Automatic annotation (TrEMBL):
<protein>
    <recommendedName>
        <fullName>DMT family transporter</fullName>
    </recommendedName>
</protein>
<keyword id="KW-0472">Membrane</keyword>
<dbReference type="Pfam" id="PF04657">
    <property type="entry name" value="DMT_YdcZ"/>
</dbReference>
<keyword id="KW-0812">Transmembrane</keyword>
<dbReference type="GO" id="GO:0005886">
    <property type="term" value="C:plasma membrane"/>
</dbReference>
<dbReference type="InterPro" id="IPR006750">
    <property type="entry name" value="YdcZ"/>
</dbReference>
<feature type="transmembrane region" description="Helical">
    <location>
        <begin position="71"/>
        <end position="91"/>
    </location>
</feature>
<keyword id="KW-1133">Transmembrane helix</keyword>
<feature type="transmembrane region" description="Helical">
    <location>
        <begin position="36"/>
        <end position="59"/>
    </location>
</feature>
<feature type="transmembrane region" description="Helical">
    <location>
        <begin position="103"/>
        <end position="123"/>
    </location>
</feature>
<feature type="transmembrane region" description="Helical">
    <location>
        <begin position="135"/>
        <end position="152"/>
    </location>
</feature>
């Protein structure tokens, strides 16, 4: 399977934005609380998403609004792990793990969950068998995570 360069660039951009969001939110948590910071982040995020959606509709991109097919019931629950991610990240970033250690462990968790989802076809995704390359990538991320965290000691 080839990666589309445009999609890869968007994914890298999303990762950078995720890091910025976590860093900013954890700073807000220092001055309030992780739960309050999560509320603020999701409230502002809701407003920003509304503005973006409105702008895409204005530009005539109807696909930004709806595919025309009803979503499965569980697809509506994505905000729950999102809120927990913001909350837990605000706690861990303000710990000795700091931003880079927290992000490294989050990446490891994302890979493990993603691989499990691929294997069982969770959330309506196509099933995919893991390959030795997947194991190698996981080991590389694990090794990098350990190096990053241990270097901070």
């Amino acid at each position: 399977m080839r990666m589309n360069i445009g999609s890869g660039g968007l994914a890298i951009g999303a990762g950078a934005l995720l890091s910025a969001m976590i860093g900013l939110n954890s700073q807000l948590a220092v001055y309030s609380s992780p739960a309050a910071a999560s509320w603020v982040a999701h409230g502002i995020g809701t407003l920003a998403a509304g503005v973006l959606l409105r702008g895409l509709c204005f530009l005539g991109q109807q696909s930004a609004v709806s595919s025309g097919q009803p979503a499965p019931w569980w697809a509506w629950l994505g905000g729950i792990p999102g809120a927990m991610t913001v909350l837990l990240a605000a706690i861990t970033v303000n710990s000795p793990l700091a931003l880079s250690g927290s992000l490294a462990l989050m990446l490891l968790g994302q890979m493990l969950f993603g691989m499990a989802t691929d294997v069982c076809g969770g959330f309506g995704m196509a099933k995919r068998r893991l390959t030795p390359r997947d194991g190698g990538a996981l080991l590389c991320v694990l090794a990098g995570t350990l190096l990053l965290i241990m270097a901070g000691r």
